Amino acid sequence: MTPATHRDLPRLVDWVVVPALNLTVAFLVAGLVVLAIGENPLEAIAIMIRGALGYPEGIGFTLWYATDFVFTGLAVAVAFHAGLFNIGAEGQATLGGLGTVLVCLAFDGAPWWLVAPFALAAAMAFGAAWAFVPAWAQARRGSHIVITTIMFNYLAATLMVWLLVEVMGKPGAMSPESRSFSEPTRLPFLRDLVAPFGIDLGQSPLNPMVFVAALAALFVWVLIWRTRLGFEIRTVGANPRAAVHGGIDPAHVTIVAMLISGGLAGLLAVNEVMGTQHRLLIEFVAGAGFVGIAVALMGRSHPVGVVLAALLFGILYQGGAELAFEKPKISRDMIVVIQALVILFAGALEHMFRPALVRLFAPGRERAR
Fold this sequence. Notes:
mainly alpha, 17 helices, 369 residues
């Protein structure tokens, strides 16, 4: 008997019921973990939701986290459509940070609205460039994209340490970092823009990159479902042999899809470097590239799903910080466990309930198989 696939279920069940069921089970298991350490799971959930969505500052932090996850989730999703598993968004975003800071330091003192287009272009170019070698190795030499992108994550981290220690390091700094660029070149915080309207976002680092993330999601939707290139990407991802018979070059599509994927991952750096840190730090990506994998899986590689999944992880990050503060027994490590459970059930065990759902919602297809 062949395993159940997404084609065996109605679209509504596949896109809504399956993720909701996986997410519910993940939180039930997480609730048992919280209960095991002597805390009330319902109270913990209430604190997380209130901390993430219960007041303007919390909403601002949630959207700021989600902005990072949208970029990396879209990056992984584009690669998924081409049949590629891009594990390298972490390294691609890291190199995007290098491109961003080089532009900001070169135009230091210029107004942000003048620098931002160049910073966006540089972040995308550096992220795409870091994805090129794994893409070329996969397309032309048969190297596995998972292995090469993981290797390039470590290479990116090593390169960044060398640059910030030996080349770009700020003299006298306690840790490896570049010098800061001046205030006019920094992206404005939305808290300053909405304050005159009586909206208090507190110390939220939310900045205009949240709108760029929305535009990136729209771009990916148009690319994948409304362009010839998107059709070629989906065809290669579904059946490379059929693509060849249709006159499509899978190697070319592989390289182009990975370049787009790396460019999207690189955009995260503008949110972090130009919008928040105002300098280049080691490990500023902080695992967002790996979270993007879970976001793409939960979102079914669709831009709308990616945005919703990114918001969920934004809630987990911001609400988890509030929960760790109010409930000392639930440490930050426990929040990581909850996030890991969501990733486990949304990713590795994503198909666990699918056979039962096929029998329930599509019994005719079950008998046919």
